[in-house]
Amino acid sequence: MDALAGLLDGPRARGAFLLRMVMEPPWAVRIEDRAPICLMSVRRGTAFIVPSGGGEPVRLGPGDIAVARGPDSYTVADAPGTTAHALIGPGGVCTTLHGRPLSQDMVLSVRTWGNAADGATSVLVGTYLLDGEISRRLLDALPPLLTVPADTRTRPLLDLLDAEIAQDEPGQRVVLDRLLDLLLIAVLRAWFARPGADAPGWYRAMGDPVVGAALRLLRNDPAHPWTVASLAARAGVSRAGLARRFTELVGEPPMAYLTGWRLDVAADLLRESDATVEAVARKVGYSTPFAFSAAFKRVRGVSPQDYRGSPPENHLDLPDRQRRLPGGRPSARLTP
To answer: Helices marked H in the chain — which ranges?
Structure first.
């Protein structure tokens, strides 16, 4: 299991918010949905993404793809200076800036929304609505906004998504979810592979013959009673050698990484299954529910029961000290 596949093989799109936005200038839509991640690609015309806080506007042409990482807000518009006339809130609810519902007023056809059926600009939008803790390690490694230019590898996926997004057949939602997943994987794979990429330590470390082997052991079997000594033996190096190289490449010691990974997996199980806290504790390597609950609360700030019962959007507000990886890098653009 490689780094990217491992992170994207857990939480997947489940009933993602997908639509084709068709607009005639002037237009601008303020996005405040707090979604963990949103993909946008222009199919016709041009669009600008204007980050909150005075960030540099990013222009998208046909085939370009942008990935916006929540919960930061931003505006999508025909031009950087256009005033927003619509607001997208949590769950994809659309209103005016004063709260009047707009969703029905701007419906053009199945999953097609906008102010003109033959508008000059067409944008595909795919939004992941739920925040999964395994994918949070990946999202925290991304800047708030990244873009990937039109590419022959992503074009077929965009063509297929464009063709399927307005269909209304049995199983259509599942088809769209999987297409969105494929597009996300293709975009992030290209972004991490670009020249000079500032990939996170764990991603680079997966290519190291020693640390990569240790990481795969920890990730594939978090419930195992690992020690640095047993991990080093399996990786074929000394205990001191593994500890030193692991910390140097990953940015934290092996057992600290294991604790974070166990709690990430546990958080996902709590949100995505009905397993008891005791069962979750066993699945991630804790001998008792008490030990698991204490570790979970120490890192997450809430008990496993409270975490399971809280709205997913609350999990985007974890203090920085509770993140396993740093985020907040400036916007980045992948050049051809």
So the answer is: 3-8, 133-139, 155-164, 172-193, 201-205, 211-220, 228-235, 239-250, 254-272, 277-283, 289-300, 304-309
pLDDT above 90 for 242: yes
pTM, full prediction: 0.72
Strands 17-23 and 112-114, sheet pairing: parallel
Question: Could you report how far apart the first and last alpha carbons of the chain are, in Å?
Answer: 28
Tokens of 156: 């077929």
Phi, psi torsion values for 21, nearest 5 degrees: -100, 120
Helices and strands: H and E segment counts in the chain: 12, 14
Beta bridge mates, 37: 69, 128
Strand partners, 112: 20, 109
pLDDT in tens, 134-158: 466 677 778 889 999 998 888 999 9
Q: Do residues 21 and 113 make contact, with C-beta atoms less than 8 angstroms apart?
A: yes
Structure-derived torsion over alpha carbons of residues 176, 181, 187, 192, reported in degrees to the nearest 10: 180
Q: In what order do the strands lie in the sheet with 58-60?
A: 58-60, 47-51, 74-77, 28-31, 86-88, 94-95
| Gyration radius (Cα) of the chain, Å | 21
Cα distance between residue 62 and residue 277, in whole Å:
48
